[in-house]
Every structure is written in C-alpha cells, then in structure tokens.
Specification:
The protein is α+β, with helices and mostly antiparallel strands and about 160 residues long. The protein is built from three helices and four strands. About 35% of the residues lie in helices and about 35% in strands. A hairpin with a 2-residue loop joins strand 2 and strand 3. The longest helix is centred in the C-terminal third of the chain and has 30 residues. The radius of gyration is 21 Å and the shape is globular. The termini are far apart.
C-alpha cells in the first residue's frame, strides 16, 4: 500500500456564510428618554451555541442581549442579536472540533455582531455602542471546567 493511501485526509475548516438569524431593538421609553441625562448602566449577556446542520456543516450562533438603563432604572433600550455562521469542519473531531466551534467560530462572528449592535443602537437614536473585545478561549475553558465540575458532582451523588 502506498504512503498516500495511508495518510488521513487533511482537515478542512472554512466559513461558508455569515448571517443575522434574529435581531430586535426596543426603546420602550422613547421619546421621553432622549430628554434625560445620558449616563446609562449597560448590561451585556453573551452566549454561543453550535449544532450540526449536515455532514461536516455546523451552525454557530453568537447571541448578545444588551440592556441600557438610566439611574432611575428606566430602560433606554434593549437590543438582541443572534449572529449566525455556517462553517465547514471536515476531518476534525472531539476536542479539536469543540475548540473550533467554541473559540474560532465565535471569534470570526464577533466583528459582525459588534457592527450589527452598533448599527441598531445608532438607528434607535442613541450614541454609538462599541462592544469590548471578548476572550472566547477563556469563556470556552470556563464552560469546560464548569461542565467537568458538574459531571463530577453528579457522579459523586449517584454513588
């Protein structure tokens, strides 16, 4: 048998498409909110999820929910974006696939998510909102550690 026949196929990873799966913007207190002093408290919730779409094709969704409230706890705006991406991952499995879907893919999607958030906020009549960079590797490692701790805790309670 030749060496070429024995060598595994090289791994392939490619971005197929980027899209907005869902977007919403609410400003429940407009236009009164524009007459108040703009010193908002901003809360940002960020999540990722992935799923297999077809052979070697995976959808990764990066979701952000941002709430801006003024000092009197009045909501200035609420924006939610589900930034999607379709990725090809061929010849990649296990932990390596998990890292691609949990770190590399969200890193690729984040600039698009960031722009969509800024665009909606500005179109809503508010000052530009630039999301700070995110360490997706750190978030991935935290999620892995938390999952391992939960699994260990459930194993000790069942024994």
């Amino acid at each position: 048998m030749s060496e070429e026949a024995q060598a595994p196929a090289p791994a392939k990873f490619a971005l197929q498409r980027i899209y907005i799966k869902d977007a919403s913007f609410e400003s429940p207190s407009a236009p009164v909110i524009f007459t108040k002093t703009w010193k908002p408290k901003i809360q940002v919730d960020l999540n990722t999820r992935s799923s297999k779409v077809a052979d070697n094709n995976f959808e990764v969704i990066l979701t952000v929910t941002i709430t801006a409230k003024l000092e009197d706890d009045e909501t200035a705006f609420l924006v939610e974006i589900h930034q999607g991406g379709l990725f090809l991952a061929e010849g990649v499995e296990g932990e390596q696939l998990g890292q691609l879907l949990g770190i590399a893919c969200p890193n690729m999607l984040f600039p698009y998510l960031r722009e969509a958030v800024d665009s909606l906020v500005v179109k809503g009549g508010f000052p530009a909102l630039a999301l700070q960079p995110v360490n997706f590797e750190g978030l991935y490692r935290q999620a892995q550690q938390k999952q391992a701790e939960q699994q260990a805790a459930s194993e000790t309670t069942t024994h």
